[in-house]
Design goal:
Arc Repressor Mutant, subunit A, homodimer, 77% helix, DNA-binding, 2 domains, 0% strand, 204 residues
Chain lengths: 204, 204
DNA sequence: GGTAAAACAGACCGGTTGTCCTGTTTTGTC
DNA sequence: GACAAAACAGGACAACCGGTCTGTTTTACC
């Protein structure tokens, strides 16, 4: 029963947002009475906090963290996720946006508990990519590019691309941004640049 | 009077969002009676449409379009805007996010009129950067990088960085992403590059 | 300075929202 | 099978929301 409420809430929060999702609608959609809902989630805020902590975090984990960790490199992981998400969106024909971003925009200024919960997910997401790239570098690959910088850019590009994709209802911008991300190379400054590039070619 | 309402609405929509801004609050904050408000904006939706068309578009124009057009190059324009916004946010000590993005997330799935109005602003923004870079290229500068690709990435990176900055209440990620963007270089040409690219595509 | 339209005032209403409260049923445990 | 705790049912309610309505005042123009 608790799970049913969470399912419906997760879906409705993404499709309509937090404020536009009334508890009445959620109750009807989940087939749950007011008493039952209030038992598991005393307030609407508690419900949202649960959705963020249990569902949104899990979605990021499944969509991003796991594929990145499983990939051959950070770069490859980013490429894989962008491609997979773009393909999924194109197949389903509409774009509802990134659950994390959607809630982050609506809630992070409204309440500090919301904000820190969402910020934690963002931080973990970035750190996974950065750590992965650091591992790549100690393994001899991926010269020059700053891991934290790359991770921040990858997450920002994804989030921003999803915003535009949602607004234009067209996933094409995701592919555009991925191609742009592919062009992120270590800055060709000084003689070190040539060496780096050689290394990059080498390991492939 | 109409201007006063728009001022207050613009501010409240950015600080609290559309749904969380009640007309009662807006009336009180603007010192306007219900009748006056209803005279200028028959519905709340009409008010939001006016805010988007007159204020949000103008904000993007002033923050992005004008500086980019005035800059020596598209790249330089992007650099300038990122720096200026980061500096402004750091000075004021809090982050309310990008007005366009905030409303885009909350409204683009709710109503198609909202959606297309917001999508138009996004499109104009991207096109300005892309056109600027095309001009750079015909003037001999900026080789290799695809203008549309760069524009999409710049806008996405900015939007996404603002999302994270808003969620973490820290503008630092903006500077990180700018540094990442600086590393966007035309893909190295030559046999080595071609080989690498082939491998990358193959993996997908 | 008369007049029509626009601008504004302020009360009002139906509907909805989130929350709370009192019972009833189910579950787990000795 | 007694019994306490958790799970659930369902109504009640006070606050609030957006929208509408009827008047009054200001403005613009001939």
């Amino acid at each position: 029963m608790r799970r049913r409420v969470l399912d419906v809430a997760e879906d409705s929060f993404q499709a309509r947002g937090y404020h536009a999702s009334s508890l009445g609608d959620l109750m009807a959609a989940a087939g749950v009475t007011g008493g039952a809902l209030h038992h598991h989630f005393p307030t609407k805020k508690a419900l949202a906090l649960a959705v963020i902590g249990e569902r949104v975090a899990a979605a990021v984990e499944k969509t991003w963290i796991e594929p990145v960790l499983a990939a051959a490199s950070a770069r490859e992981g980013v490429r894989t996720v962008f491609g997979a998400v773009a393909a999924e969106l194109e197949q389903q024909g509409y774009v509802r946006g990134c659950p994390l971003n959607n809630l982050a925009h609506e809630l992070s200024l409204a309440d500090d508990e919301f904000r820190s919960a969402l910020a934690g997910i963002f931080a973990g997401w970035r750190q996974t990519i950065a750590d992965k790239m650091r591992a790549d570098q100690t393994n001899g690959g991926e010269g020059g590019v700053d891991p934290d910088r790359f991770a921040a850019l990858a997450v920002a590009a994804y989030s921003g691309a999803m915003s535009m994709a949602k607004t234009s209802q067209d996933a094409g911008v995701l592919r555009e941004c991925l191609k742009g991300l592919e062009s992120v190379q270590p800055p060709p400054s000084g003689p070190a640049a040539r060496r780096r590039r050689r290394v990059l070619v080498h390991i492939r």
